[in-house]
């Protein structure tokens, strides 16, 4: 009998790197889909992380989903979407230990100043030793509903197989929101969107972490300074702030080179500004907020995304009108062993870039330090 799912990767380090980014919880929810494997973790319904292992990361990917049992001959085409995408819980810590059984780990990577250390300080650092990847393969297999998740690692003729017990969740909503995080980010009510190099965010959070804060405040405005600032407060030391400012000299030069108006005068200064380090900077707060978006989050939760910050090349920071914070990290994974000589670079981008997502619920009030968990509903 064919298994429900089987996949082979020739680079277990890619899988380890992505899953390590969400390794802040002991268990993960796993969902098998035709397009890849979704691993999601959460903490007390105020923080969630999602890592998607796209089928392109595997040399072979086979998915034979079970069905609801209804006879396909008795259904119209519109009704034949009765396949099941199996979903179960698995020990994420055990899976990570299994993937590094042949030495894939943090020993060859620099440490971070975070108390929850990130394995590397840049995307390139995660793959700095290609010799570690030679001759290693990883096979994932899920035979039937309720079967263990089997992981087989092979290197230089040595093969190790581990079977991880799978569990069903006691949560009645488990599996009802396939492919989505439970903490809702209102895509039609985004009031802040910032895209920047992840290293800038990682460095800023590292600096703030040195004062051991309990609250992280994010402040953004496109009209007045500080345009984008991160502040840490509530710890044993005084409040500290990292501000991302604009390059005023560069901005003035841009104004000087603008074409003259019909009256022969230079156009007036633009009313919106963007910090120099950002690629995209869109801040559109509602009138009730004035010209600035500002929200508070528990610093300990933001710290748990440190590994993703360190491994990623870019980060997209989004906030909705309810204050929910979304961070999407773009992680470059090299050529995955499937390079075609570099003749088609655009093809390689989609294959070798993966994303890790986090959602954070804001604090109701900076003083009482409580999370707004009543927001979570699906």
Automatic annotation (TrEMBL):
InterPro entries: Rad1_Rec1_Rad17. Keywords: DNA damage, DNA repair, Nucleus. Residues 250-270 are annotated as: Disordered. One of its GO terms (cellular component) is checkpoint clamp complex. It is found in: Nucleus. Residues 250-268 have a biased composition (Basic and acidic residues). It comes from the Eukaryota. GO terms for biological process: DNA damage checkpoint signaling; DNA repair. Its main location: nucleus. Belongs to the rad1 family. This is DNA repair protein Rad1. It comes from Talaromyces rugulosus.
